[in-house]
Amino acid sequence: MEFSHIPVLFDETMEGLNIKPGGIYVDGTAGGGGHSSGILQRISESGKIYCIDQDPSAIATVTKKFENNKNVTIIQGNFGDMEMLLKERDVEGVDGILLDIGVSSHQLDTPERGFSFHEDAPLDMRMSMQGATAADLVNNLPVNEIAKILSRYGEEKYAMSIAKGIEKARNISPIETTLQLAEIIKNSVPQKVRREGHPARKSFQALRIAVNGELIRLEQGLEGAFNMLKSGGRLAVITFHSLEDRIVKQTFAGWAQGCTCPKDFPVCVCHNKPKVKIVNRKPIEASQEELAVNQRSRSAKLRICEKI
Ligand SMILES: C[S@@+](CC[C@H](N)C(=O)[O-])C[C@H]1O[C@@H](n2cnc3c(N)ncnc32)[C@H](O)[C@@H]1O
Questions:
Q1: Is 35 near ligand 1, meaning CB less than 6 Å away?
Q2: Could you tell me the pTM of the whole model?
Q3: Which helix (H) or strand (E) is 232 found in, with range?
Q4: Which residue CA neighbors atom 24 of ligand 1 most closely?
Q5: Pocket test residue of 64, 110, 127 for ligand 1, highest count of atoms within 8 A of CB
Q6: Around Cβ 266, how many Cβ atoms within 10 Å?
Q7: How far is the CA of 31 from the centre of ligand 1 (A)?
Q8: Is the CB of residue 54 less than 8 Å from the CB of residue 48?
Q9: Which of 11, 161, 172, 304 is the most buried (most CB within 10 A)?
């Protein structure tokens, strides 16, 4: 199956990264290589791009796409380990980093990856194809833990009711497929919810976040990115839901904060200085033109900061 993914906020990201021809760049979420290609086109012979992805199928795609290109280094790994992955390759500092968080359209549209509640497939959801699957979680975690995941990562109002539905079903036989789980969720929520979009949407998002440790990896990735940026280097992060955007917003705000002394202190004693400049106070969202051609861009938010 061909890798189909339209890069979101492409022009805005290229502009936001302020690409220098001879610079060193990292695409921490290479996917189908759309944004990476844009960076590659903007760097010169002396520039370099490191393309990281944890998904073996994304790695196979970008390896083929950038075959024999000496400016590109492909790394299969987690961007949460970015600092280690780059330092292992003797990279000490970089000029720009992009994180385009979440799943690709390719992952969503490949039924056997188990991300979609529209297609019947094994309940997997692992981007790296390693570790515990979504089926492992729903079949083995205590009910309270499942409810906590659904509530925290999916902001699902009926989290406990769905968790109890899962427990009841798994006591009869293990939950193994996406449609099996989608049906259990549908039957665990009130009738009216069934009319407001697909009732499994929030729970599937929550399980995907838990399976891939997405929020903790994002926090680690931001920290690693900050450590790897040279002074004047830029970090651009695209998120697709409020939990992720909140982490990016708060992390950037923490870095940008100078003095943290209480307001009534006559002089500063903390001597904290801002570590970054926030490039866009409000997140950049997709234009009407982009929304018309790519529905997936509707929830995308781009934030950019520059290391001082
Ligand atoms: C939205 S897609 C990126 C698409 C890409 N910008 C493009 O233009 O094709 C997200 C990609 O990030 C990868 N990914 C998500 N979280 C990751 C993580 N923590 N470490 C490494 N890769 C990750 C996914 O496997 C997926 O391929």
A1: yes
A2: 0.95
A3: strand 229-239
A4: 103
A5: 127
A6: 6
A7: 5
A8: no
A9: 304
Joined together, the tokens standing for residue 227 give 């450590």
Topology match between the domains 10-106+214-307 and 131-212: no
Mean pLDDT of 165-169: 98
According to DSSP, the residues that pair with 94 across neighbouring strands are: 229
Q: Say which residue the tokens 């449609």 belong to.
A: 179
Domain boundaries, the chain: 10-106+214-307, 131-212
Mutational test site, ligand 1, from 9, 40, 63, 104, max ligand atoms within 8 Å of CB: 104
Q: What is the dihedral of CA 41, 127, 116, 244, to 10 degrees?
A: -70
Nearest CA to ligand 1 atom 12: 29
User: How does pLDDT run across 243-297, given as a tens digit for each residue?
Assistant: 999 999 999 999 999 888 998 999 999 999 999 999 999 999 999 999 999 988 9
- CATH class entry, domain 10-106+214-307: alpha beta
Q: CATH for 131-212, among 1.20.81.30, 3.40.50.1380, 1.10.150.170, 3.30.420.10?
A: 1.10.150.170
Q: What is the pLDDT of residues 107-123, one digit of tens each?
A: 988 999 999 999 999 99
